[in-house]
Specification:
alpha/beta; Rossmann fold; 9 helices; single chain; 244 residues; five-stranded parallel β-sheet; two-stranded antiparallel ribbon; globular; 36% helix
Length: 244
């Protein structure tokens, strides 16, 4: 009896408060992704397409096709080996990441991680050489405020899919910093400078790591995290984000 009652109550809730797409806010029908996003909005997510910059992973413009690195990366010192992002940080995916990160919708991690998993498979990223998946950590103060780390959630889904160990407690954020979105791009590197530490010596010696975060903009945060990992002995540090 209880499951039937629960279904009845659930049906009444759907009638009184019908589910809406998290992007366009229109009422959802059966044509939706995970009963969260309508197919129309999902289809509008702009994808990063090859040829990719061999550092930041963004699409190279026509005038840079003869080069493997975009002009922005030529001018910047980045400590990771290469970054990848399935999506361009605008429109629908930007809205979904904002809901995931700032509006307590941690369950969106499952949906958004599918974009990353599909990208890994489509472009045959070398997961076979990855020893550990590392989520970019939050400072303990911010973690208390948010109650979850979005990078950890994404990492868990990717780790399960590719049967890779997720190490979420060895790389730590040792300094509280302003949100990168709150400061000018040219000041973001100094904001996160020396803000990461590796807690256990020798764990990553000679290991290849995949560093996970939600968004790559200037690359300053993941670069500093990669710097700490490399200083601890890591061999290769790749970066994967939902969007850039």
């Amino acid at each position: 009896m209880f499951p039937k009652l629960q279904n009845i109550i659930g049906g009444l809730v759907d009638i009184l408060y019908p589910k809406a797409c998290l992007v366009c806010k229109k009422r959802l029908t059966d044509n939706s992704v995970d009963n969260l996003v309508c197919f129309e909005c999902w289809g509008k997510i702009k994808r990063n397409l090859p040829p990719f910059c061999h550092r930041c992973g963004r699409q190279l413009s026509r005038k840079n096709l003869t080069k493997s690195i975009c002009p922005a990366c030529v001018k910047t010192t980045l400590h990771f080996d290469r970054a990848f992002s399935p999506c361009v940080y605008e429109g629908a995916v930007k809205e979904l990441i904002h809901e995931f990160k700032y509006k307590d919708k941690d369950y969106l991690g499952s949906t958004l991680s599918k974009l990353m998993i599909d990208f890994i498979k489509e472009y045959e990223l070398p997961m076979d050489i990855i020893d550990f998946i590392i989520p970019v950590p939050l400072h303990k103060v911010r973690f208390r405020e948010r109650e979850y780390n979005q990078a950890q959630i994404l990492s868990n889904h990717i780790g399960r899919e590719f049967k890779r160990t997720v190490s979420g407690d060895i790389l730590i954020r040792n300094r509280y910093t302003k949100q990168q979105t709150e400061i000018e791009p040219e000041k973001r590197l100094s904001n996160v400078k020396n803000s990461f530490s590796v807690m256990q010596n020798g764990v990553f010696n000679g290991k290849n790591l995949l560093l996970i975060d939600d968004v790559l903009t200037t690359g300053s945060t993941v670069s500093e995290a990669a710097y700490a990992l490399k200083n601890s002995g890591a061999n290769i540090v790749f970066v994967l984000t939902i969007a850039s």
